[in-house]
Amino acid sequence: KPGPYHRTLELMDENFLSQLSTNPTRGKNVLDLVLTNSPDSFIKVETLDTRISDHRVVECTLAYNPSHLQVSNKEESDSFRKIRVHNVDYTEMQEKLSNVDWNDLLRTCNEECNGDSEKYKDCIVEVVLAIAEETLPQKTRRRRTKSKISEKYKKKKKKK
């Protein structure tokens, strides 16, 4: 019977995660993990001693400043982010991808893109995204549930 270590590796594999913290965090053991699906977003991951715990602190240095990011609540219409890729049977998508005449697509992309590699990549991504949208479920926005307190407040306000 596989132990929790094997289940952690399965989870990482299923979700395309990499473990970045390789230094021991308590004694000789790596107990504190840094899991990510974007390892290129990190410049450095290190462990540092601290006086307040017998665990070492894991410090991550990001390749960008998250305070400068613009957060958007709307789904990106031309992105794979809107597609739910977990727990999907990819057989249908694989079948549709195998039915694409890739040589013809590459020829068409070459003609339309005039050597511009960025436009060329976008042309290929557009076809793959269209197939993914047909075969994979789209993410749905979760609605925030209203708290009982906010409901009571609204009712009180209406009475006044």
What is the string of SSEs from the N terminus onward? HEEEEHHHH
Distance between the amino and carboxyl termini: 64 Å
What is the strand arrangement across the widest sheet?
Answer: 1-2
Helix content bin = 25-40%
Query: What does the largest sheet look like?
Result: 2 strands, antiparallel
- The total count of strands amounts to 4
The chain-level structural class is: alpha+beta
Q: In percent, how much strand structure appears in the residues? A: 5-15%
Compute the CA-based radius of gyration: 23 Å
Low-confidence stretches: none
What general form does the structure show?
elongated
The number of helical elements comes to: 5
Quick check: average pLDDT? 76
Molecular structure report:
This protein is of the alpha+beta class and 160 residues long. 39% of the residues lie in helices and 11% in strands. The strands form two sheets. Strands 1-2 form a two-stranded antiparallel sheet. It has a two-stranded antiparallel ribbon with strand order 3-4. Helix 2 (91-98) packs across helix 4 (117-135).
Descriptive terms for the model:
alpha+beta; 160 residues; 39% helix
Write the layout of secondary structure elements.
Layout: H1 4-14, E1 18-19, E2 35-36, E3 42-48, E4 57-62, H2 91-98, H3 102-113, H4 117-135, H5 148-159
Antiparallel strand pairs: 1-2, 3-4
Helix pairs in contact: 2-4, 3-4
